[in-house]
Amino acid sequence: KKPAKQLPPNSEMMNPVMLLNQMRPGTTYEDVAKEGNPPAIVFTVKTICEGEEFFGKGNNKKVARKNCAYAACSKLFDIKYPE
Hints:
This is Blanks. By secondary structure, the protein is α+β, with helices and mostly antiparallel strands. It has a single domain, classed as Double Stranded RNA Binding Domain. It contains 2 helices and 3 strands, in the order H-E-E-E-H. A 3-stranded antiparallel beta sheet has the order 1-2-3.
């Protein structure tokens, strides 16, 4: 698939994982680390996009992947996400 040429409207309101997959099809995430003991486990996920590595941490893999995509979208597309 070809990458999208321009960001969709209201891209800051989209789920960052969905946006990154739309803008950079074929993006994959790799589970890098799992720290701590249950129930306080912290997962770390990594993706490589446009030659740069982005990391995200979270209390489950889904949150870690979302935080990783937040980092990538913020840097690559200059998106300012609401707090």
